[in-house]
TrEMBL record:
Single GO BP term: regulation of DNA-templated transcription
Protein name as catalogued: Regulatory protein, luxR family
Record-level Gene Ontology MF annotations: DNA binding
Top-level taxon in the UniProt lineage: Bacteria
Organism: Psychroflexus salarius
């Protein structure tokens, strides 16, 4: 009974996150068949490339939140058949994205990237590319697969609301214990990083004061110097550092530096 309760609790939380996802990314714009057919024919050609065997290509209707196209090799990366993607649409994402990553994407990364995107002019929005780092749970092997996703909007309506999103997802060499989102767009004639947000479940457990201490320690300050700068007792700083190492499951200062480089 306890396991069943936990399963229901997990499903309930996933539904809550999915509702948040829809509030951010579902659009009212209608897509005509001609636009979809042209994109599908273009994407079908990708299946001839050798890289496609370990890559997921998709075309997403932002109004219906259904995948108009998923390449046949998507199974190799996710353990999910293309037919299941098409049948379930984006409802399948909470099932194949590692839950803590999905939660951080929906509640932290997507809102920040979306706010940044809405500040762009029309030309910049057309050029915009989203880069996401997170982890899939392969439904067959049950293993965590670090992936990187590149996506952009392929079509807009008359009021310049996006209608179609296209993307590519492939295995990543970055071993993030969390998520990262980058928005790039053309500015002053070249593509530039306009927003870069990374976070982890561990980072979300830290207080603002603890993050401040990590940044100072990684700048080379001693505990005594950190205490002086923050007007705190040295013993208080020592307790904070001890709690930081415990929360992040760190063994040494080198791992603290690595955490700071990855997430702060």
């Amino acid at each position: 009974m306890k396991r069943f309760y936990l399963f229901l609790l997990y499903k309930s939380k996933s539904l809550d996150e999915y509702k948040t996802y829809l509030s951010l990314l579902k659009e009212k714009s209608q897509v005509n068949d001609a636009e979809i057919k042209a994109l599908i024919e273009e994407y079908k050609a990708t299946e001839r490339f050798s890289i496609a065997s370990k890559t997921l290509f998709y075309i997403l209707n932002l109004n219906t939140q259904h995948y108009e196209f998923i390449n046949k090799h998507a199974y190799n990366l996710t353990g999910v058949n293309p037919e299941d993607f098409k049948e379930n649409g984006t409802k399948i994402l909470p099932e194949i994205i590692y839950y803590s990553d999905y939660k951080l994407l929906v509640n932290q990364v997507f809102p920040k990237l979306q706010n940044c995107f809405l500040e762009l002019n029309e030309a910049q929005q057309k050029s915009a590319v989203f880069e996401l780092y997170y982890r899939f749970i392969n439904k067959v092997s049950n293993s965590l697969e670090p992936v990187v996703e590149y996506s952009s909007y392929a079509a807009f309506d008359k009021s310049f609301k996006p209608k179609i999103s296209t993307g590519i997802i492939l295995k990543s060499s970055h071993k993030y214990q969390g998520v990262r989102g980058i928005l790039r767009a053309k500015k002053d004639g070249e593509m530039k990083d306009l927003c870069d947000h990374r976070t982890s479940l561990e980072k979300e457990q830290l207080s603002k004061r603890q993050i401040e201490i990590i940044e100072l320690v990684c700048q080379g300050y001693t505990k005594s110097e950190v205490a002086d700068k923050l007007h705190l007792a040295k013993g208080t700083i020592h307790s904070h550092v001890k709690n930081i190492y415990h929360k992040l499951n760190l063994k040494n200062q080198a791992e603290l530096f690595q955490f700071k480089d990855n997430y702060l």
